[in-house]
Amino acid sequence: MPDSEASEAAGLRARLVDVGVDLVAREGAQALTLREIARRAGVSHGAPRRHFPTHLELLSAIARRGFAQLGERATETLADAGASPRTQLTALGRVYLDFALDNPGMYELMFRHDLLESGHLGLRDTSLPLFGILVELVGRARPNVDARLVAGALWANLHGIAQLWRWGSLQLATGAADFTPLLGSALDAHLGPEAAV
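Given the sequence above, the corresponding structure tokens read:
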């Protein structure tokens, strides 16, 4: 394939993902059909198949962008290597919840394993390192526990807070005006109460 054709193909591939990212932001994961993405990209409905042989591959490429964005935010947040693991976990939890609430369509897509299930698309290479950061911080905060299990439980708790907050259920049930006290309670539940300084 000549360089100009390869460049054009890469450009269309990126444009299809860009359109998908915009579509999921505006209308949610349910709007991500091949036909709609092609229509909004201004190409024939068969064109995406040349770059993404399956719908799953296109959805995974779109979700990969979300994981990259969340990963960048997490990396920026954890730049203070001198902060305690608890402080870093609090900051990471806030980043996670802010991302979930600010990007509900992308967030839904990123964690819909039923839509994205595939071991050969490389999505796990983007998503699992984020969980690894959580495991590492939990391990430093609670060295005598199975950090993967505690991190998994904490992640599930944060995911539940994000969903229930977005639906308005937690505000109604707790009277909380923001999710900060809930984040603190989740960390206390999984890490133990924060030591007095």
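The two ends are 64 Å apart (CA to CA). Try to locate this feature in the token string yourself.
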